Amino acid sequence: MAQRHRVAVTGLGFITSIGNDAASVEASLRSLRSGIAPFDFADPGRAVAVKVAGTIKEFDTRSPYWSKWTYPARYRFAPAALRALPPHGLYALCAMEQALADARLTPALVGADDTALFSCSAGSPFLMRHYLNTLHDAPDMRGSPMGVVSSISGTLNFNLGTHYKIRGGNCGFVSACASSSHALGYASDEIASGRFSRVIVVGAEEPNTDALIPFMSMKALSACADASVASRPFDRQRDGFVGSGGATVVILESSESAAAREAPIYAELLGWGQSSDGFNVAMPQPEGEGLVRAIHRTLRACELTPKNIGYVNAHATSTPQGDRAEAVALNEVFTKTGAHPVVSSTKGLTGHPLSMSGAMEAAFCALALRGGFVPGNANLTEPDPACEGLTLPRTTLAQSPGIVLSNSCGFGGSNVVLAFAPWSP
Fold first, then answer.
1. Active site residues
2. Domains and CATH numbers, the chain
3. What's the predicted TM-score (pTM) here?
């Protein structure tokens, strides 16, 4: 068999509701500082039941015209880099700049044949609506030449791949809320097999009306108007998720490449596993059977047992059905075998950013591994009875997470579990 390469996390970039760089994000995780705030999803006078979101600070992307956007002055982009971007593409561009600097990657390395880009987003329903309305209103049905590339789900691949002159590979992943975890899993396989030296994984979404309010029709969003408690994973009183967005970039690299560059290393991605529920287009299998299979596959792939795991970053979005199914799955894998890892969901702070949640939470795990802490469960007052047996701290713990699992679950029953460990040369 060909040599398998170790996979290191060498760069992180964040535009999130709890911070727009690694330092502020880590501070929010440690202090349980929420990024959820009141948000106007509609014009005054319209009775929209949803009142809060995980908001992105320092950015104003409410206009469909990039020339009217505002963003932090520390970022400098030429008009050519912005004219085909959706709002979440701007977030991704800023997070990319952070991650590349963090990993000390030069333009030559980013554009090398052994560097790939894997991206995840649902596209921009906001810009899609704008461009389609413009097209239908025009007598000759002509619209913007940038309408397609700035709004469909491959927009991050088109824009970032071109801007950074990616030549090794450029691929998108679409599996709903498991998308960017799938991207990380397949990226790790590409590096471990030696096909690429590094893969840049990007997840980004827009926290605006067009992207989030459709979930209200599914009764998936919280109707709680109190931003301080609306997102409460695992709590008995939870009533739905709080929508969020932004962008997170995670750079994975072979240990040989990282060592040759003397790059900083946050953690090691040991391996991953996945499964499908085959149950329902939107609901998880009630007993978490699919997630159980994904966790067991991850443990087998990494030659681990349940008792080796110190921390589980749960997918738990604050929906009644999803959180319960995950709690049942965790009890099945861990509690019944005498294992008691710490479990928390950081979505109590961030809200749920859909397809980017896997990359965002993997990056949170990398920060926790480097910083020696375990994020607590924000807003957890009365745990759901299904959580009995799980270790659910209410505050952040000042202890090493040990080996970490990060769970992601998406529509259609897609389950992905990533395993991370502290880096040891």
1. 177, 315, 352
2. 7-261 (3.40.47.10), 271-422 (3.40.47.10)
3. 0.97
